[in-house]
Predict the 3D structure of the following.
Amino acid sequence: MKKTILLLTTFTFSLLAFCQGNTVKQEVSKFEGLANTPPMGWNSWNTFETNIDEKLVKETADIMVASGMKSAGYTYIVLDDGWMTKERDSNGDLVPDPVKFPSGMKALVEYVHSKGLKFGLYNCAGTKTCAGYPGTRGYEYQDARFYANLNIDFLKYDWCNTEGINAKEAYATMSNALKKAGKPIVFSLCEWGDNQPWNWGKPIGNLWRISGDINPCFDCENNHGTWSSWGFMKIIEMRKDIRKFSGPDHWNDFDMMEVGNGMTFEEDKAHFAMWSMMASPLIAGNDFRKMSKETLSILTNKELIAVNQDKLGIQGFKYLDDDQLEVWVKPLSDGNWAITFLNRSEALKKVVFDWSKHIIKDTDFNLEFNTTAIVFKINDLWKNKAVGTTNTIFKSELASHDVITLKLTKVK
């Protein structure tokens, strides 16, 4: 009888343990060092949505090389939603659309690589992608092996159709799957900031979106009913106090750029300057085949790109707002700084800035800009010329929605 009771007790406890589920914490370890500076490249979504094909990718790769964009640092070509068929094959594998990509996806990846560029694809943590194609839920390890076999370099991982899923665990699972597959792939978390990925994303991915989709406008909201897309200034000011979570290999991602997609020249400049100041990934979203010289000049401004790619990896912040004339600052390596004056208003603004009256403190990173202690020489990064030192009051005029971006370098 005692033996029977003992066996029954053991069975009961085993059953209870089983019913309680697996309480082992999922450990995660991404591929480290793949994005020590913000990734730069091109993504198909902003202009083409699901209307993508092999010809577009090849032409985009060719132009990236011929136009000087590759030389300026643009590396990744990322195909967003719509690259696959509506169903998986009999083995459960994703199927690149044979009509859109008649030579096959692997051959297209090889073509992009032959240009000295890198290749990225898109999927989603849910059962379906945002456009209704097969999502990755339940197929994480299988899909990771598929991407590794294709030899891709970047995965953008979206958050549609994810009812009932825990965001941190879903992204950790895919991160582990990529690591297990063995091919180093930059992991881009496109979770929109709903679950505060800056709090948990560092060991999981290399960058994370902090907002919903961008819209090609300065400061608007485009309401779609159940969700909104946002002008670039709205995105910049959407999240407070998260800059301390961003840095080398773990970036706050402010979304793909809309430079060249219908805003004014001044607004395009402001957009690019602010993405550079915020240390956001610089992922172009325009049609390179129709790109104007002005758009190209903005996207390939090497001085602004250097601010974005600065090895210190600190995101900028707003220091001052004086009647819609804003001053944004970004600490740079070697004790240097970038300063952007931004005109949020509809009218011309006069800029008069006495450096000696502004001791700027970056409390997140314990840094200070103080021209009473150190003299800085000043370069205008849009005009690409020296404009004096901090011993002199800076004066200029600034058109509506325009920017002046300066680099301040310590005088040795």
